[in-house]
Amino acid sequence: MSSLRGRGLSVWVLGEKVQEFADHPVITPSINAMAETYRLAETDPELATVHSKLTGSRVHRFAHVCESVEDVVAQSRMQRRLGQLTGTCFQRCVGMDAINAGYTTTFRIDSAHGTAYHDRFKEFIAHVQSYNLVVGGAMTDPKGDRSRGPSAQDDPDMFVRIVDRRDGGIVLRGAKTHQTGSLNAHWLVVMPGQRLSDKDAAYAVSAAVPVDDPKLTYVLGRQSCDTRSLEGDVDVGNARYGGQEVTIVFDDVWIPDSRVFMDGEYEFAADLVERFTAYHRRSYVCKAGVGDVLVGAAAEIAAMNGVDRASHVKDKLVESTFLNETIFGTGFAASMAAKPTPAGNYEPDTLLANVCKHHVTKLPYEIARLAQDLAGGLVATMPSDADFENDQVGPVLKKYLKAAPGVHPDDRRRILRLVENMTMGRNAVGYLAESMHGAGSPAAQRVVINKLAQFAEKRAFARRLAGCSACPQSPSSTWTSPPPPPPRN
Amino acid sequence: MSSLRGRGLSVWVLGEKVQEFADHPVITPSINAMAETYRLAETDPELATVHSKLTGSRVHRFAHVCESVEDVVAQSRMQRRLGQLTGTCFQRCVGMDAINAGYTTTFRIDSAHGTAYHDRFKEFIAHVQSYNLVVGGAMTDPKGDRSRGPSAQDDPDMFVRIVDRRDGGIVLRGAKTHQTGSLNAHWLVVMPGQRLSDKDAAYAVSAAVPVDDPKLTYVLGRQSCDTRSLEGDVDVGNARYGGQEVTIVFDDVWIPDSRVFMDGEYEFAADLVERFTAYHRRSYVCKAGVGDVLVGAAAEIAAMNGVDRASHVKDKLVESTFLNETIFGTGFAASMAAKPTPAGNYEPDTLLANVCKHHVTKLPYEIARLAQDLAGGLVATMPSDADFENDQVGPVLKKYLKAAPGVHPDDRRRILRLVENMTMGRNAVGYLAESMHGAGSPAAQRVVINKLAQFAEKRAFARRLAGCSACPQSPSSTWTSPPPPPPRN
Amino acid sequence: MSSLRGRGLSVWVLGEKVQEFADHPVITPSINAMAETYRLAETDPELATVHSKLTGSRVHRFAHVCESVEDVVAQSRMQRRLGQLTGTCFQRCVGMDAINAGYTTTFRIDSAHGTAYHDRFKEFIAHVQSYNLVVGGAMTDPKGDRSRGPSAQDDPDMFVRIVDRRDGGIVLRGAKTHQTGSLNAHWLVVMPGQRLSDKDAAYAVSAAVPVDDPKLTYVLGRQSCDTRSLEGDVDVGNARYGGQEVTIVFDDVWIPDSRVFMDGEYEFAADLVERFTAYHRRSYVCKAGVGDVLVGAAAEIAAMNGVDRASHVKDKLVESTFLNETIFGTGFAASMAAKPTPAGNYEPDTLLANVCKHHVTKLPYEIARLAQDLAGGLVATMPSDADFENDQVGPVLKKYLKAAPGVHPDDRRRILRLVENMTMGRNAVGYLAESMHGAGSPAAQRVVINKLAQFAEKRAFARRLAGCSACPQSPSSTWTSPPPPPPRN
Amino acid sequence: MSSLRGRGLSVWVLGEKVQEFADHPVITPSINAMAETYRLAETDPELATVHSKLTGSRVHRFAHVCESVEDVVAQSRMQRRLGQLTGTCFQRCVGMDAINAGYTTTFRIDSAHGTAYHDRFKEFIAHVQSYNLVVGGAMTDPKGDRSRGPSAQDDPDMFVRIVDRRDGGIVLRGAKTHQTGSLNAHWLVVMPGQRLSDKDAAYAVSAAVPVDDPKLTYVLGRQSCDTRSLEGDVDVGNARYGGQEVTIVFDDVWIPDSRVFMDGEYEFAADLVERFTAYHRRSYVCKAGVGDVLVGAAAEIAAMNGVDRASHVKDKLVESTFLNETIFGTGFAASMAAKPTPAGNYEPDTLLANVCKHHVTKLPYEIARLAQDLAGGLVATMPSDADFENDQVGPVLKKYLKAAPGVHPDDRRRILRLVENMTMGRNAVGYLAESMHGAGSPAAQRVVINKLAQFAEKRAFARRLAGCSACPQSPSSTWTSPPPPPPRN
């Protein structure tokens, strides 16, 4: 990832400003995870690349705007695969989902206002595709006092906003939090994070900013067990791959108008957010891939412990699989039910996408619980790698770590640490906490499910069958779900 | 449904042999439910009919062998729709799934044995399509002592078997239980219900039998509150529609060889069962349609009670919707991931089909529980319709049944009875007990999930990330899920 | 139960006024269930009787005011036992809990207002004890438009109220719904059902009314499968025992002041309701006894089916037991943590009582689901008893109902019908719907749990451990839970 | 805790042998947690001390053998309290439960074999009481190949065993794993960990060993985020308190016969284990106290975020409380239902103790999930304390951490770190993984529940009500649950 080096970013890690973040051992695993997205394009080009109408050539799927149902579905497949390969967050979905959502919203703004955002945005995407770049989507603001909107805060900087206009561009101030993998990106697409009112016009802004803009400051978020990466590989559990979350401070960042995709059209903020989450909540099928790893680790440690034939062990592995496939099935269904937007690109089914994400806020926690169950108490009481490798105490520790015949104690340690990593350690951030809050917390999905539940139609079904007065005999001609099959050419 | 009358079937209902079952008030609702499948073909031909290669003309979708992914998906959409329209089991899925499964298995038997079952079966299907007939699938045997297989039973009749061969045909004896809607069918397709061994060759039989064969006896199963249909309409809850389950006794039924589709090829019994359940476990998306009715009834009664703005009420409706869409989403995904079989027809994804059905064994019970919660105690304590309509006591009862302004007490009664009907009454059989056991009980799905979980691949993912010895760097080239996108022409 | 006969009550059943309700076959099972409470006093006097300070003699425990922690605990034990013996609601808890709650509230009203309710109430209880009578507690009003309180309704009768005062007494008008077992009682204790304001003074009334007051009209509530009691015994499932719910209309019932226990002291309405529910929500440990029956039925049918050694079967029985004991354990804990009231009697722990009842709104549904799972599909498809007993078709049905060796088909039928009875039939009302709504619906418990959760203390614990500013070093001297051990003499 | 210093233990921490473990910053928090048990004896002597018959004086409750139901109950209250005060495992329950269980088992062995273990054991306890010492219970062996028993292992040391007898004592070899707080103890009571056969006589050994025996080696287990204790206090989340788990190697430890409490009586190994777990599974009510902290942290962070009035937030706090009180209620019930043993001490109800522990393997995970939900994404993405305290980047980070008015950003950080600590960090070991495996993994509780479920009695209840043949009319005179009220003096 040579393109990440030498950019002189202002990056803070554990209280220190680092010269070259890409070489920081706490950050390297996150780069490795993202790098797998590039590697997959080489090892499985059918899955990770696609022909783009925008550039007329084959591009990385993460940089692609969906042109068909198949494109939407292939994203789900690619995401599960990368979850399997990294066991963590590979950080490239936000940007993919941001360019897909922005593609439609810019089209709609232009239709309403006669602006020219859509062409600008297509140019930006073409640039990204041509150079095979990584885009980060910068949506979540610090929010300050949550009972008040952006323009009603005591401190107006609690949401990113336009503070100035000069030299054919705008100037942004504020911060974005929970920014996944931003250091590993080349561009950030700034977006508003919620519905805005007419008083919030200065906050209705979307624009592309180069990650190495000197007015940006990055502070790495702590993750559970983050400093184990400084110690060695075994105790990390998954030494090669990890996630990355940063806080980004925008200290009056200037952006030329040519990279601005929304500027004051506050009434389209909700449109952008809703389209983004339709894609992004379904993107959490990646957790089915990460779940494949954890279910595999649970199956492996059960076998190593010599108890894999116990009926309760088998049952817990079946349960884990059932839950994991529920994530996949609902996300896959959302993709399969994709429909074209006014702009011509394809968008997943919003209801099913929210059903998928809502499961993701619960089921990984249960799969993690079952994995800790199958791992046994050692997952939380095992001595350190340094103890095992110590000349004096190591040999006796290894003697007592022996379990089922043929299992090397070191392999057993490694699988135990992997379970720890995914259920309590560094990648528990990606598998659990991010599953909870990424793309919106559980309450956000319930709001959408409530909105799309078609209760009026359902009540009509019930009234008709109960024989209530004033009942339609053929209710619900407007029933929209189940979605129609994908259109064919 | 004139075609159901005058057939002289030997039908027992509540201890009496009935002359014309179609006129029996306990049975009529089940006929109405099935009749909706015909009505839908008129009101929404796009959904309920399809062009068939076998006959070259447009046929009912329930009689169709899937020729594409779209065909498989359209089944799911049609099933949900009919669930919405009937609020119960419309009894036509078993036959549909049986002809789809048999289509493939007969092809495979012929390939292995040089037999001619496939052409016979296609002829049978063409007949069914041409006359728009209803097929019942007769699979479940009484089973006797479940610790022993068919040929090891004390009484060899515990599974349907060939007891004789004469006049160019075979003679079947035994019984089939839990037969959904058989009285409303024109043909029964007999199938074995489980994996068989070489000792069970006489039990490895599949054949088509006309429902009005004089050697068949039918006994109607009781359903909760079945006799309310004899009383009037209000207290039934859903007076128009109901399900139907019968026990069928085969008292030496002769079948010509031309309608026999398996005869002794015991090693293909499991193939037939597994293919059938791949279709049928996903067919339970119909319960998402029935769930739409119950969620609608819950929303309606909450509004009638005047509490629909309470946050806990809204939350329970959202939860019900979330659960209901989980059924739909996983079943829909199974259909969307359909793949062609060796015979050229299309078959749903088996793993996702089992995930769907496994949810169906749980989630309707929770939706029913939430509906009882929202209904309030009246769902179980309300006086009878006869009391409400009585001149003396009726008026005061109606006075005290008033709730939110503008709600007619009679409508409120009807919705309450509908909730009772679906959670404790007659259609609780279809919505709950059948959801539990139809297409296989929960344990059966867990066996399949275990088989398809690809634990070896998952363990390899985990070993690679943990850095265990002897780990592949690119595991799981054989990983088969997520399924590839449907092939395009 | 001769004392129930010849009272000339005005009782409506299924649209007809019955002369002697006690002989009505739909009602008889509910009388049998209540009669078990008397029988238990003979067979296990230690459990069902107790020495009363009020009368100085041994009285029925259901008529007793708790004088110690042991008394409160013994109620729980008696309730579970009667659940085991009847498999349904035995209808005597409401009255028991009403006299215990009223004992305290009358004392408190007198303390505040100088009234004489407490002595009157003690006299009433002594009368009940002396004659070993059954008391029904009449609390729930029809409520009308639930967004408005009693005095704000369009129709002022939507809550029972005082409409007149004459002849040294008060006159009550209105109705009470969901009245459990009132026909089998001798006295009704009228109580308000919710917190009242000063405008609701006419509704703040508690008084004892004889069940055979001529101004009372009773209408029996329908229950699932209620009319099976008219058919015979097998298909009922539990032919001997059932519950009873009635609507009672108060058509200007005159009550002498000597039997009035609250008259306008609206500010004590909530006190009475809260004390009553503290007892009554914990009284639902009876469902652990009913659950013992259903878990037993599930274990029995699994054995009859010959699958009781399957690991998933054993696991489901363990799970059912675990859930059932959770109901018992939390209710038992509430009783064990009883504390004396200002009036000197003993009252259960309110928080734990609500935890118990809240489990009761969920866990019986899951136990019922598991029982249907273990029962197999026959629970919903088995022919009627009349079919099995029919000379023509019966023998072949019995042939095919054979299962594990040594199991009589008739016994198997009976157990299957018992499972139907408890999960979909008549006693599903008692085991499920009543578990949901009796003593308050789930939302009501959550209100109480919220109120008693001591969040301020919990937040102080957290702030102290996190090292927040302004934190007490020894927080929560006011922490009241876990309750202290019961005081000893 | 001066008594812990200067003992010259051989302790390994993170690969290094430490001179004075008590000063090691990773270990100090565990000492603080244990020290709270001493402090409580001073601040609340009623709760944490008790009069002992053995010594005739007031002793620490953790060193006490229960002489009454009140004693058993007071343990539960003390445990919850200490959970509230430390937010983690205070490590003193194992020893308490070991001396209570051993008290009975030694009595029973003596009765059977004429040995003198009981008096020895009482002397040992009196010593512990007199000097107010901490006892660790050493039960869990490495177990090696779990498909084989102790004497059938390839390496006979996989379970602690007697390898020699000399100088009036025995010599032990082997290891004990998952040893909670052993470094902070003065004595270890070695016990077998499972049912043994006659071939395992050498493994049937119980004895007291001083923690500072020179033949013992201790290796500290790693915990998630353990090294944050080396960094400072804020990011630890709970800087003062933590748990401690060690592996102990017995390298031929000599023990005089006077401290041996079982020596070859293999048939009593199960008795000791079962009695120990009856106490210890109920001792997990401590997690209700830890849960009080986490629920408090969730309530606090919700308030700090300014969203505490949202209905879903309140509902999640109610749900957390409901679950937390379920742990407490079932454990408290187990203690309340305590019964005397043959030795005269009091023992909790085994069934309810297992119900409690089984909930503990699940509910803390759900409470933790809800806490992460309420905490918001910052719980996993917040920069380090060093960043916040850095002169350059700290001020801007603090600016953007502001939330609800009046909340200091530093306090908000601390609460977020506490939630991280308890759900993913160091005390997630105590609150989650230890809840899963301590006192036996979930499968172990299910074995006990199955054994005590009284299925035969339950089946008799069902058969009687269903009217099956050969049914007792008054079943279950042997029904033992609900337990009788505690005996009174």
Strand and helix layout:
4 copies of one chain form a homotetramer.
Chain A: E1 10-13, E2 16-18, H1 28-43, H2 45-48, E3 49-51, E4 58-60, H3 69-86, H4 93-113, H5 117-131, E5 135-138, E6 161-166, E7 169-180, E8 187-190, E9 205-210, E10 216-220, E11 245-256, E12 260-263, H6 269-283, H7 286-305, H8 311-336, E13 339-340, E14 346-347, H9 350-360, H10 363-375, H11 378-381, H12 385-389, H13 394-401, H14 409-423, H15 426-437, H16 442-452, H17 455-466
Parallel strand pairs in A: 1-10, 5-8
Antiparallel strand pairs in A: 1-2, 3-4, 6-7, 7-11, 8-9, 9-12, 10-11, 13-14
Q: Can you summarize this structure?
A:
Chain A is α+β, with helices and mostly antiparallel strands. The first copy, chain A, has two domains: 10-272, Butyryl-CoA Dehydrogenase, subunit A, domain 2; 283-450, Butyryl-CoA Dehydrogenase, subunit A, domain 3 (Up-down Bundle).
